[in-house]
Amino acid sequence: MSHNNGIPAHPSIFRADQWDSLLAALTDKRDQRIIFTNGCYDILHPGHVDLLARCKAKGDILILGLNSDDSVRSLGKGDNRPVNTFGVRAYVLAHLASIDYVVEFNESTPLELIDAVRPDVLIKGGDWGIDSIVGKDIVESDGGEVLSLPLLHGFSTTSLIEKICSGC
Q: How would you classify the pairing of strands 7-8 and 2-3?
């Protein structure tokens, strides 16, 4: 089956209106350590892959909350963002060995998704201080752990876009 301009459907991608299906898929996995992280992941680069692999190493199941296209635009990253649509970003990310589920959220933050999933571990990249990580209170109130992992130096989507554009 195909959707989104010929990109094949993938069983581990859940749109924002499919959170109930994700929660059903997690029902028999609650004995495993569930990790949650989120981001735009507009143009995948080594910094993303490194962070996601280290997130996965903290548990059994990695759920990636992926900003919808409207959500990316709401963050003020620029008129040309996202470069890749949600469908493209989700399809590429769903094929990484570290990711078990890719879940779309439409809001500017994944707070509602975190509240629905109730992960054991919530992780963001080191550019986020622990106290500024959205969902921290929810995860900690459940006895979970919140981490800010160092980023792989020298990689960012913004700098990658700037490098591409300077060559035009």
A: antiparallel
Instruction: Give whole-number Cα distances, 38 to 28, 130, 168, in Å.
Output: 23, 14, 31
In order along the chain (168 residues), what is the average pLDDT of each group of 10 residues?
A: 70 96 95 97 90 98 96 83 92 97 96 98 92 97 96 68 67
C-alpha–C-alpha distance, residues 24 and 20, integer Å: 6
End-to-end CA distance of the chain: 37
User: 103: number of CA atoms within 13 Å, CB side?
Assistant: 29
Structural tokens at position 31: 């004995």
Under a CB-based contact definition with an 8 Å cutoff, are residues 14 and 22 in contact?
A: yes
For residue 38, give both structure tokens: 């989120």
Average pLDDT of the chain to the nearest whole number: 90
Distances (CA, A) of 20 to 14, 23, 26, 61, 158: 9, 5, 10, 17, 34
